[in-house]
Fold:
Amino acid sequence: MYVDVATSVVVVTGGFGSLGDAIARRAERDGATVVRTGRKPGHRGLAHDVREAGSWTAVLDEVIERHGRVDALVNAAGQLGGVPQDVLSASVRQWHDLMDTHVVGTWLGCAELIRRRPDHPVSIVNVSSTAGLLATPAMVPYGAAKAAVVHLTKSVALYCARSGLPVRCNAIAPALVDGGVRDDVLSTVNDDPEQALAAYLSRVPLGRLVDPEEVADVAHQLITAGGASLTGQVLTVAGGLGLS
Structure:
């Protein structure tokens, strides 16, 4: 059960961010019709607030009206949430913002697509993070939100399988990605960016940051025939982070 990406319609939330853009471009290179969504998409995509149920309904209605179907949904919308985020300094506002965007937003997308009971193979890919798999004392609400995405992914996968729906749901958990919010993440542990990067890379067996294109390649696998037997799985793209 897989999506033929060359003839597919792929929706990518957060499609103008570092990861969303890489995933969208990878699908476009293979011939997919890609619909990017975002808070401020301009003329290149659809306006979309993933935290709002009505916004999800409007986006999927428009995609289906234009293209007839949705074959893959990549939930890549997200935010870092600002600093500080340690146990004592994180604010209630940060908790709400991060949970609403990462968890509620991802759940709403999965639920809205499943509610339409597709009769063709559909792949959902949720973007989590190694912050949701490992302790992140400097980024507690962000890590907790990404951990919840992992749980949601597994629950959605099992629900669809048990319901006889041709929907697979998996997650990707990247480590720190080169570009994007890299420097903002590093600033949570050290004000000196070079020292922070050196300290981080000392924990990564491959000794380098993740390239957004590598994450896009894994998303591609999960959507296409390479992931036909995968559902409820979390694939880490982390250079070995967490092995020791």
About this structure: The longest strand covers residues 167-174. The mean pLDDT is 94. The chain has seven helices and seven strands. Strands lie at 9-13, 33-38, 46-47, 72-75, 122-127, 167-174, 234-237.
